[in-house]
Specification:
The chain is mainly alpha-helical. It has two domains: 89 residues, Arc Repressor Mutant, subunit A (Orthogonal Bundle); 139 residues, Serine Threonine Protein Phosphatase 5, Tetratricopeptide repeat (Alpha Horseshoe), CATH 1.25.40. The chain is 61% helix and 8% strand. The strands form two sheets. A three-stranded antiparallel sheet has the order 1-2-3, with helices on one face. A three-stranded antiparallel sheet has the order 4-6-5. A hairpin with a 5-residue loop joins β1 and β2. It is elongated and about 70 Å long.
Length: 243
């Protein structure tokens, strides 16, 4: 079976979305894709490089024997070929996602890393709403190779949101800072650094009751989950209000 892919017809744009539900789009329209093909494309996208056929087969069909796993991979590539569009590049030994197929999670990781390095990066700040909106990587998938990348994306995203929120607070863009900090808390409710940013913004806004309420809500959550108290650094933020 020839697994090579034909070039994208007419230069039609293909894009792969892995945050939220899986989506393969062609010219902006979502395509119906068999789940076996979804898994193959997601694996190649997260790998970000050519992968040996044997490795792909072993990862995606780990409950099958070597021959059956290899057959399943060939079938998946054949079904992918029927979609057209030059989505993957396949040889006898390796398979890779085509270099010109954009993957949302790769773009979001680059954006997040740019914000961590420099929260004042104007181009990165322009893309901040995308990072706020795109929360989870394939949240309904439980394969080990997805879980590892999901956690990596989650942590980098949280660091970026906090970095951006702190930068916005420093420039007194308080509403934007609050929204971004809240997005970080939504991603991890027990993350104190994000909770502290919310309290700092509310204090800067002069919303003292809201700041105290935010502190108390976090304190109650932390106590209920782990029988712990917020750090001294957070408590000091609202010490005078509590008194």
């Amino acid at each position: 079976m020839d697994d090579s892919q034909t070039p994208k017809p007419g230069g039609v744009a293909v894009a792969l979305h892995l945050t939220g539900a899986f989506e393969l789009s062609l010219a902006g329209q979502a395509m119906a894709v068999p789940h076996v093909v979804e898994r193959l494309l997601a694996y190649l996208a997260l790998a970000g490089r050519p992968v040996a056929r044997s490795r792909i087969a072993g990862a995606l069909w780990c409950d099958s024997g070597e021959m059956q796993a290899g057959k399943s991979l060939r079938t998946a590539l054949w079904r992918l070929q029927r979609l057209g569009g030059g989505i993957v590049a396949a040889t006898d030994g390796q398979v890779a996602l085509a270099a010109d197929v954009p993957v949302d999670v790769s773009e979001l990781l680059e954006l997040a890393q740019a914000l961590v390095r420099d929260p004042d990066d104007a181009a990165a700040l322009d893309g901040l709403p995308r990072l706020v909106d795109h929360r989870d990587l394939l949240p309904d998938w439980d394969e080990e190779w997805v879980v590892i990348d999901r956690e990596r994306y989650r942590l980098v995203r949280l660091e970026a949101l906090e970095s951006a929120a702190a930068g916005l607070l420093a420039r007194h863009r308080l509403t934007d800072a609050l929204l971004v900090a809240m997005a970080a808390v939504q991603g991890e409710p027990l993350r104190e650094t994000a909770r502290r940013l919310i309290v700092r913004v509310q204090l800067e806004q002069g919303n003292l009751v809201e700041a105290l309420r935010s502190y108390q809500q976090y304190r109650a959550l932390l106590n209920a989950e782990f029988r712990l108290e917020p750090s001294r650094e957070m408590t000091d933020l609202v010490a005078s209000l509590r008194a």
